[in-house]
Amino acid sequence: MSTRVEEEYDYLFKVVLIGDSGVGKSNLLSRFTRNEFNLESKSTIGVEFATKSIQAEGKTIKAQIWDTAGQERYRAITSAYYRGAVGALLVYDISKHGTFENVERWLKELRDHAEANIVVMLVGNKSDLKNIRGVETDEAMSFAEQHNLAFIETSALDSTGVDTAFQRILTEIYRLMSRRNMAAEEGVGGVGKGQSIELGEGKKGGKKCC
Amino acid sequence: MSFFQTIVRSFSTDEGTNEGKNDKIEEKVFIHNAVENGNGTNKDIPGYCGTPTKSDFIKNTANERAKSAELYLNELNLNNAESNDNTVVGESRSLEDGEDSDLEEEGEESASTRELEEEFYVVDKYGFIIEDIDGATGTSGGSRTTRALISEKERKRRADLESSRSIKWVAMITDWQKYSKRQKKLLKRRIRKGVPDSVRGKVWNLVGGVDVSIASNPGRYDRIISLSESYVPNQDIRDTIERDINRTFPRHRMFKDKGEGQDKLRRVLRAYSLYDEEVGYCQGLGFITAMFLTYMPEEQAFWQVVSMMTGPTCNMRAMYEHGMPGAQKALYIGEKLIKKFFPKLTQHFARENCHISMYATQWFMCIFTNSFPFDLVTGVWDCFIAEGWKIVYRIILTFLRYSAPKLFKLGFEGIMFYFKRLPERIDGHTLIQQAFSFPLKQRHVDHYERKFHKLNPDIKERLDEEERRYKEAGGFGMGKGGCAPDTAEYKSPTFEGGMETEKDNLSDIDTVSAARRTSLAAPPYARIRPPAPNFIPPEYLTTQQQTSDSPSPFTA
User: Which InterPro entries match (chain A) (predicted)?
Assistant: First the structure.
């Protein structure tokens, strides 16, 4: 598989991939974690999981990414996965305006179920479909600014922006966390090396007890 | 009647385990007499026999034997392009992409005028592409059978066994009333051994009461279909269906490209979404519907979906409706059963924060169809349609029984990846037989179901309310979308099922569920004898991981 279990890392971040069905969440994930794109991909039912480690500011950051089914009623199950997530990639399809219109509903979903300080990045996927673009970059960008979200356009098909998207959100989470830690260190200990944030699971040997 | 030239290749791609054999592919030309379009035989479904006769059976057996080689190298014969029955072997791909706008109109004329491209690939006996002609293999985007896990000899043995069982099954189908009423035990035993592929569609129809539904609703499916062209009560649902059409079994020869298979799937899903507007469509349903379509004609597949959704045996509707109460219940019961039978493993999972919904959601939502090899899937469905949910839990518990030693050594991620790769490691045939010997009883399931209802009174209330409504109205989908049935007195499709209830035999089930079940007509095989001890000899497997005296259905 993509990742060895015993892999060493400094930090472990849980990130969720959300957005309407068919916007390309699963292919974004497979492009990022395995550098694969599958034209014959199947609909995601429930949740799927993958990991990948990246380097950011000299630290090894391991991303634990949860890919979720896009259909609205699956939120009954998938919303449990927002808990403990420190980042969310909110994906829409640049060739389908409807998927962009639903972004607001997904944001509400995050507000209702995720941590308040979750880092959210708006991702306009399928940027290779320029000729049938339905969402202008400017429109999405101003929406992102308005809602205080990071923004990027990607194409899981031709790889454009995929690594950058994950790199940026993970780095952003790391910075936020370091800042918080620094503030915390003046008080209590803070989050230590090899421990996950808001996750009961850390590096081998450093697990929380039940 | 037409003859197809099929090249059957016997080959072995044992993923490197059989040195050198990978590239050694024996080819022999095999003239295969295609299933004739006899009386009542559906031309689109190889092996589907509407009203099977002895002669149908012989034809099907011929087909079966060809299938038993498991591998077809499909050669598209241009001469057959105009013939309708090219489904037995070939798959044609249109070079001009038929635009979806007028897919319904794309009929025989366009098929004959299509410019055809020769396409080669190897499919397994269920129609899943094992290998493209350029050698591309892979599991992604499609299920696969466990060819690599069983020996050639064993494969042949199973095929022969299936052929000989077919004879018994044809006798049973032709005298279904007798067997379903008076020989229930025999029928149950035979279903558990696995329904032969050649009669599977017909048997599922009979067990699900599909023929009765069609008889009491003549033309209704067609009316819903024509209504669906102009009536779109929910655009979201329509769009979701559309997005899933080419993401359902993309590596099955029937669904891989735009064409008849995808059109049928689209029509059946749209029809159901109108028949039952409250549920509409939920992701997961597509895989099950597609599986039905590989075994039976479109109209039958539609009523099979209706039966599976609304009937008390499968009750899949609760899985798919808003809020997914059925899925929540199944996850709860599954979790508790795992805890009951594997307390230590449960502790390990808890330490690793590994929750059942992380790995089993899709197993429940699709009843294994979307990722598992079809020898497992079809076997589970034989039993699921006839007996209900217990087999689903049994399978999961059996997975864990054989995986436990491995899982104990794995951390969170290892566990997740183990489950992800599980479908590739399973010999479904063996696993199902193991599952029947798992000591799970209906009362265990009922016990946790009651607990779930106690914890979630709102869900219970809702399900009860729906059950009431269903009974009063005589079925869902009675509104505009459902196109009211012809018969003055509507007969519920499933409760009229082809098999009788077994009220007197409800020994190990509590009164509450007994009441509920009998009120809805009990599942055909409500109670089950203790399963026979493993009758699978250990030499069934080439690759074995012995965890006990019984063979493991997993590869190492």
Answer: P-loop_NTPase, Rab_GTPases_membrane_traffic, Small_GTP-bd, Small_GTPase
